[in-house]
Each structure stands twice: as structure tokens, then as C-alpha cells.
């Protein structure tokens, strides 16, 4: 699976009705469109210290609250003085707007006259690349005076958001803008401008309890230690392609106290733009067998009876030297939010789903939004590594 194929399939794994549409026979059916609007934002500064929990060299950071839309997170971003709500995506790297709220150029921005085209599977956009002021977190947030961004003239599959805040590796922008080898990301520019001393992002997500709740936080340039309950376990970006082109790591997944193997040590990615926890088809089949779950035809998700749920055991993710427990409660979709996926109010659905290819492809899992809500994650460009720590949500019984 190459870079372009990954880019083409990526967005089918994330937001609202784009989520997993038509990916494979065992993938969830399109979700009901998630309402996206967030009401207000908060920007505040945090300090970070301590070698175990802060990326090396980080002495300053800025944190921005973000909104849980029930299937992904959105950030308020002001571009050229105009406000947009953008999907936060570590699995792509172009930042762009205009899908829903149309961009109105003014004297603060300048067109590069270069075309931009990015396809995401069931979604895509094309338009023109601009440069100008971008402020993360809204008009009083974290400012980037001269950021390159796309303005959509056409966009398909984005009725629920104004565009994407791409915070993946910069290499993913290659070939997307004419006349340009690659486009610096917002984190590249924050570091280059000296706004942050380490090019890293710490992400705190919380389990979903409703739509449009500002319960997440992105910290640019450091780690918000108030969100963690353990040291951060850092691992280098995997050397296995194509996962190595993304925020890719190696991990092993086992089930229960007996240590039943679900997925042997292999490469995959950590991705805010994917809603579920996706694993290779053979691993998914092993998980379904271990849990005794059945495939629900309405949602495309695995479903458990109450008695089966009472017997559901934890998954364990071996990442570096640390085993991270993913509890039974963490494995189920929030029952209060079943209507978002078109499910029955009283049913119990699992968030572990089929990636659509057998293991050995070089990208055998995607630890998505539902997984990230139970941990603190760090995406560290300076040191080419990913970090994971436990939080109070790791063993919460919120679902």
C-alpha cells in the first residue's frame, strides 16, 4: 500500500458519513452525519518540564481546547481573519478551508496561483493555494503570520466541516500543490518562527459523552502533565513502510488475562482522523472469536449481548517497553451515543473493526479517535517519535 493509496483511503475512516463507507465487507456502514459546530474556545499557556514526560528541549508550549463532535475532533481556526471549524487530522498534512463556509480573500492573504488537489477516498478537494495569517484556536489563539493553506473551489464529502487541519508529517504534502515540492505544516511553521521550541503536539482527548463538547486539548510544543497519570512512553517512528510515512509505530495486541494473540508485533499508525480502532482482517477475526461478538448489519460494527459484555476482557497494547490496558468499557461505543451511528439505544457495539487487509501489509492497524480518548498522545517531529501515556480516562467507565 503506497502513500497515494493511503491518502486515498484515509478519509473513508474518519468523519461522519465519510466514515468507512464502502471500504470492505466488514466495515461500518456510513454513520449519520455528525453535527459539527462548537460554541466558543479557550486558549491558555502551559509549561512543561521533566525528561520523562516532556519532549526533549521543550521549554514553552501553548494549549488550545478542541471540540468532540462524537466521531472526531474539531478546532476553531481563523484564516485571513475569517473563522472556520477544521477537522484535526494527524493522518494528513495539508491545511485547507472552504468546504462549507466559503473563504473570502482579503488584503491579508495572497494567492500563490498554484493549484492544490488532495483525495481522501470518499472525499476530496481541489482549489488554489494561498498564504496568509492563520490563528489556531480562533482569533485570540496561536498565531502563524504566513501559513500556506488551500482554499477549496470544489470539495466532496465535507458537508460537516469547513476543511482539515493537517498535522501529519510534512512529506504527505508532496505532490499536492503544483510548482511546490512540499508545503510546511502549521507545526513546521510554529517551530520555524520560534513560537514553540520543540516541534511536537501533545493531544488530550476524553471519552465522548455528547456532541459538540469542548473536552479535548492540543498542546503545541510540549506535554500537559496535568492530563497524564504516567510517564510518556516514547517509541521511534516505525521503519516499516507505508506506516513509516505517517505517525507510524510498532505494537503487539493481546486479549485477556491468558494473553491470546490478536496481532503479533507489527506496524500501523496513530491517527486522530480515524474514528475506530481498526486492525488487520486476520486480527479482527481473532478478536471476534475471542469476544464472541456478532456483526451487526445496520451499523457494520460488532455487537455484544449484555452477558457477552459482562465477560469481555481487556486488550493489551505492547508499545515499546510498556503494556497499555484497553479496558472492556473502552472497547465499546458510548451507549448514550448509539443514535450517532444509527444503532439501537439498548445495544452494545464494539469500536474494534476490520481494516480490510490481512496483516503483513506494512500498515496493520490504526489506533484512532476511540483509542486515543483513553490515553495522552505526543506527536514529536523534532525527535521522530510518538509518545503514549495513561490518563484518568484509561480505566474510566464512561461508555
Automatic annotation (TrEMBL):
Pfam families: Asp. Residues 73-389 form the Peptidase A1 domain. The keyword Protease applies. Residues 51-63 have a biased composition (Low complexity). It comes from the Eukaryota. InterPro entries: Aspartic_peptidase_A1 (IPR001461), Aspartic_peptidase_AS (IPR001969), Pepsin-like_dom (IPR034164), PEPTIDASE_A1 (IPR033121), Peptidase_aspartic_dom_sf (IPR021109). Residues 35-45 have a biased composition (Basic residues). Keywords: Aspartyl protease, Hydrolase, Protease. Residues 22-63 are annotated as: Disordered. The keyword Protease applies. GO terms for biological process: proteolysis. One of its GO terms (molecular function) is aspartic-type endopeptidase activity. The active site is at residues 89, 271. PROSITE patterns: ASP_PROTEASE, PEPTIDASE_A1. Belongs to the peptidase A1 family. This is Acid protease.
Amino acid at each position: 500500500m503506497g502513500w497515494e493509496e493511503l491518502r486515498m483511503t484515509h478519509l473513508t475512516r474518519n468523519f461522519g458519513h465519510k466514515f468507512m463507507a464502502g471500504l470492505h465487507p466488514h466495515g461500518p456502514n456510513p454513520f449519520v452525519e455528525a453535527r459539527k459546530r462548537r460554541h466558543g474556545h479557550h486558549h491558555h499557556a502551559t509549561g512543561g518540564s521533566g525528561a520523562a514526560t516532556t519532549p526533549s528541549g521543550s521549554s514553552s508550549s501553548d494549549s488550545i481546547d478542541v471540540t468532540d463532535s462524537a466521531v472526531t475532533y474539531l478546532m476553531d481556526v481563523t484564516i485571513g481573519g475569517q473563522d472556520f471549524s477544521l477537522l484535526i487530522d494527524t493522518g494528513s498534512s495539508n491545511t485547507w478551508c472552504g468546504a462549507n463556509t466559503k473563504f473570502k480573500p482579503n488584503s491579508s492573504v495572497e494567492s500563490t496561483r498554484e493549484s492544490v488537489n488532495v483525495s481522501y477516498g470518499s472525499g476530496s478537494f481541489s482549489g488554489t493555494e494561498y498564504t496568509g495569517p492563520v490563528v489556531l484556536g480562533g482569533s485570540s489563539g496561536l498565531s502563524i503570520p504566513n501559513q500556506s493553506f488551500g482554499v477549496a473551489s470544489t470539495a466532496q464529502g465535507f458537508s460537516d466541516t469547513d476543511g482539515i487541519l493537517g498535522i501529519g508529517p510534512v512529506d504527505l504534502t508532496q505532490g499536492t500543490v503544483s510548482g511546490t515540492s512540499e508545503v510546511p505544516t502549521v507545526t513546521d511553521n510554529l517551530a520555524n518562527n520560534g513560537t514553540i521550541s520543540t516541534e511536537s503536539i501533545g493531544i488530550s482527548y476524553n471519552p465522548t459523552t455528547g456532541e459538540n463538547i469542548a473536552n479535548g486539548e492540543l498542546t503545541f510544543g510540549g506535554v500537559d502533565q496535568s492530563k497524564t497519570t504516567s510517564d510518556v512512553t516514547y517509541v521511534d517512528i516505525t521503519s516499516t513502510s507505508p506506516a513509516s510515512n505517517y505517525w507510524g509505530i510498532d505494537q503487539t495486541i493481546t486479549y485477556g488475562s491468558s494473553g491470546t494473540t490478536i496481532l503479533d508485533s507489527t506496524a500501523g499508525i496513530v491517527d486522530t482522523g480515524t474514528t475506530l480502532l481498526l486492525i488487520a482482517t486476520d486480527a479482527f477475526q481473532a478478536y471476534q472469536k475471542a469476544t464472541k461478538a456478532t456483526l451487526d448489519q445496520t451499523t457494520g460494527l460488532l455487537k455484544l449481548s449484555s452477558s457477552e459484555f459482562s465477560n469481555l476482557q481487556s486488550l493489551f497494547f505492547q508499545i515499546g517497553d510498556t503494556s497499555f490496558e484497553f479496558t472492556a468499557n473502552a472497547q465499546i461505543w458510548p451507549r448514550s451515543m448509539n443514535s450517532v451511528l444509527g444503532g439501537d439505544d439498548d445495544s452494545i457495539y464494539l469500536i474494534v473493526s476490520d481494516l480490510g487487509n490481512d496483516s503483513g501489509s506494512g500498515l496493520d492497524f490504526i489506533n484512532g479517535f476511540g483509542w486515543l480518548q483513553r490515553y495522552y498522545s505526543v506527536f514529536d517531529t523534532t525527535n521522530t517519535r510518538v509518545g503514549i501515556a495513561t490518563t484518568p480516562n484509561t480505566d474510566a467507565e464512561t461508555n
